[in-house]
């Protein structure tokens, strides 16, 4: 499949069907289970940016672990079909490929906000002169709560310590030059730059490499929240060079509701046992872990931030999805995602004037598989109508509907039918 710039989009249904027939990734759709409409047909699922679909193999993989627990009891840690003691390592190489990192730099553990706090223990080390945290003004609330509470924990006034990036008046998204200018102007006071590499509300993606370089030049630490980037964008965390990144696995990564998240810690911090951190026994050196000694010896790399042994049933479900990502590859998924999202944009632009405004950036390099749509005509009523018609999106106050055609399981025909329903709403 070629990129969106090389595709001549057409408005009719025949074009959508032809694109689906020619899609080299079309068979991955069959690997997922879809909610069904009343007539038994699968819904049009455009909300994978909130909760991904269930991989067909997730049930099998979870049941295997339940069976091994029944059959082996505690011996399953060593003798299960996939022994539980090193189970998290079954997804390490896949995770590293997914986010463009070295295996040493990643670990699957905990949940996103827990991991964010653990990373700030190590990488938010404020002083009287350098104590500020730079975030997006429109960052996901949990990130805003986390940074404010960390600032207060260190004895600072959160209103003074948290520096927020805001779009220019009349604009919906941030300008890259404004981000870099803020880092340049406030750098000596900034201890940590923490951005979502894709903003959850607008769908805007940021240049992580440029931001990391600018922040490091000012002596700041840099972290990214990849909740809407992991499994969506083609990432290169090692080369981009942030100090850390965190993500969840239940959105684009289809790991299941509330499942484990992930952590990236750059290789340059891999062998720094004196780096402050909260310690737990699963982060202890594997060779001596079961000697149960009192002194913590951290594993090198991201594994050294682990606290507890992981929940195997959650890992089993996530493993089912990570195998699919590894087969499809992120370059191929991002290529299809760019074309699919470009097609959605093309069709939306042909709707009656005034119905919808796309607030997500138009440039392919500034977004992933999400368009955030601002509706001026009864957006809540529209969402209810979409749901009744078998289309699942989500709503954000006061008037935004987010539509995310995830390339692993969404089709061009899905996009075509979604826009036709929007068009019928405009006629009413």
Written description of the protein model:
The strands form 4 sheets. The chain has a 7-stranded mixed β-sheet with strand order 4-10-9-8-7-5-6, sandwiched between helices. Strands 11-12-15-14 form a 4-stranded antiparallel β-sheet, with helices on one face. The protein is globular and about 70 Å long. α1 packs antiparallel against α14. Helix content is 36%, strand content 13%. The chain has 2 domains: 4-33 and 329-427, Aspartate Aminotransferase, domain 1 (Alpha-Beta Complex); 63-325, Aspartate Aminotransferase, domain 2 (3-Layer(aba) Sandwich), CATH 3.40.640. The longest helix has 19 residues, at 330-348. The protein starts with 12 loop residues before the first helix and ends with a helix. The protein has helices at residues 13-22, 56-72, 76-79, 92-99, 112-123, 141-153, 158-161, 176-186, 208-217, 237-240, 312-328, 330-348, 379-388, 412-427; strands at residues 32-33, 44-45, 54-55, 106-109, 132-136, 162-165, 190-196, 221-225, 244-247, 261-265, 356-358, 371-375, 391-392, 394-396, 400-403. With 428 residues, it is an alpha/beta fold. It has 14 helices and 15 strands. The model has no long low-confidence stretch (mean pLDDT 96).
């Amino acid at each position: 499949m070629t990129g969106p710039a090389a595709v001549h989009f057409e408005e009719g249904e025949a074009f959508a069907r032809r694109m689906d027939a020619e899609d080299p990734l079309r068979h991955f759709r069959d690997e997922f289970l879809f909610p069904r409409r009343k007539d038994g047909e699968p819904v049009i699922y455009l909300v994978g940016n909130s909760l991904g679909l269930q991989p067909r193999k997730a049930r099998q993989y979870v049941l295997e672990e339940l069976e091994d627990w029944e059959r082996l009891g505690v011996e399953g840690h060593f003798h299960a079909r996939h022994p539980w003691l090193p189970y998290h390592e079954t997804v390490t190489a896949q995770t590293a490929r997914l986010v463009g990192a070295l295996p040493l730099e990643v670990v699957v553990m905990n949940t996103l906000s827990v991991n964010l706090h653990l990373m700030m223990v190590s990488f938010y080390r404020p002083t009287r002169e350098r104590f500020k945290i730079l975030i997006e003004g429109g960052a996901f609330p949990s990130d805003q709560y986390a940074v404010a509470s960390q600032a207060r924990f260190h004895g600072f006034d959160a209103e003074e310590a948290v520096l927020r990036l805001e779009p220019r008046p009349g604009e919906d998204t941030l300008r890259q030059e404004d981000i870099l200018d803020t880092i340049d102007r406030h750098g000596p006071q900034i201890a940590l730059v923490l951005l979502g590499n894709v903003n959850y509300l607008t769908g805007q993606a940021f240049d992580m490499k440029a931001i990391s370089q600018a922040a490091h030049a000012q002596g700041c630490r840099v972290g990214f929240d990849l909740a809407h980037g992991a499994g969506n964008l083609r990432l290169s965390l090692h080369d981009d060079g942030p100090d850390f990144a965190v993500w969840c696995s239940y959105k684009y990564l289809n790991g299941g509701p509330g499942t484990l998240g992930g952590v990236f810690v750059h290789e340059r911090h891999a062998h720094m046992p004196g780096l402050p951190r909260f310690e737990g026994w699963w982060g202890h050196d594997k060779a001596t872990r079961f000697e149960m000694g009192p002194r913590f010896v951290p594993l090198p790399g991201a594994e050294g931030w682990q606290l507890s042994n992981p929940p195997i049933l959650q890992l089993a479900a996530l493993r089912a999805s990570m195998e699919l990502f590894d087969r499809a590859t992120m370059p191929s998924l991002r290529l299809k995602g760019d074309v699919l999202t470009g097609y959605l944009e093309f069709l939306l632009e042909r709707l009656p004037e005034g119905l919808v405004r796309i607030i997500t950036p138009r440039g392919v390099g500034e977004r992933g598989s999400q368009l955030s749509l601002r509706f001026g005509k009864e957006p809540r009523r529209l969402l209810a109508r979409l749901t009744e018609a078998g289309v699942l999106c989500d709503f954000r106050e006061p008037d935004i509907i987010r539509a995310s055609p995830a390339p692993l399981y969404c089709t061009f025909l899905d996009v075509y039918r979604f826009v036709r329903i929007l068009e019928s709403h405009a006629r009413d």
